[in-house]
Amino acid sequence: MTDGAGTTPEADRLALERWRLVLGAAGSACLGGQGLGESAAGQDAALDWLYGRDEEWDQREVRRGGDRQGGAGPSVLTTVDWLDNIHRLFPKETIERLERDAVERYEIHDVVTDPAVLERVEPNPALLRAVLRTKHLMNPEVLRLARRIVEAVVRELVERLATEVRQVFHGTRARRPSQFRVARNFDFRRTIRANLGHYRPDERRLYLETAHFFSRTRRHIDQWQVILLVDQSGSMVSSVIHAAVTAACLWGLPGVKTHLIAFDTEVVDLTSDVTDPVELLLKVQLGGGTDIARAVAYGAQLVENPRRTIFAVISDFYEGGSESALVRGVRQLVEQGTRVLGLAALDEEANPDFDRELAQRLADVGARMGAMTPGQLAEFVAECAAG
């Protein structure tokens, strides 16, 4: 049976239950005094287990008439129970959001440090970031289980980016004309532009006097050096992950020599581990101060041919060392012909959070400042190499 609007009573009830879950206990009136169904009650308990620890949320519940109460009794759910429940009750996208909030917003470390939890959890980027932040808390057995998360997420990232890199570097038609006239090399855009004068409106036809073709050569990669310096402070964890993956994908390209340097107040050359990004990430020590100038000075020593070097500094640019030394080091690199990138983020979202004043000073001496996804960085490298 459906009502006049074409909905069933069951569909109406499910819609009301969703509103009740959104509004919390204060929205109980939505159900006209009836309780939640079994599935919705489970979802409500799972949401309450996580977000109930939010003091602001708790205060809102009290103001809105919610019936939340404290107590000295044991928690209804353990972390293991909670994970089992959310995987049973919610879609994948919601599960990943809940797990991300658990480890990043509420710092529930046992999500990635408890063996019983690690055996159940599905790998995702939020959990990888959590593993890297908390691996110093893990004993060898727990770290072995956590490695599964690192391997699974890194493998997916490498496969995805490797495809982008292959598309950028291989089989791409150069933007140069060719006299080799075959259909697969036909440059239709240039041909149309060149023959617009021969368009006959009455016939609605374009007559071609001259056809143009691409050169079918691959991009020429000739001895380019890519030096990636990545800030390993805790706020840059996503960029550290993607820098490791990007370096691994660039490593095997002909004519591209890749270096990966991690830094805080110390500088660690990780180039020897680039081919194994999983092992590399497990060696990274997140946290500590930041001395970008020191890292730039180290990286400058690696430059072999300045005019064939891309020097990327991945940092939030909150410098703990000497800002004047940093600006001076970047200026010297630019003046010798090195292409310097200052990236405030290197990840899939490329949402930057950085010291804009220092970034502007670096831009003023010739660095290109911004944020990139790994694919965009690969495109930049390819354009430089092909140009």
TrEMBL record:
Signal peptide: none annotated. Residues 223-379 form the VWFA domain. PANTHER family: OUTER MEMBRANE LOLAB LIPOPROTEIN INSERTION APPARATUS, OUTER-MEMBRANE LIPOPROTEIN LOLB. This is VWA domain containing CoxE-like protein. It comes from Goodfellowiella coeruleoviolacea.
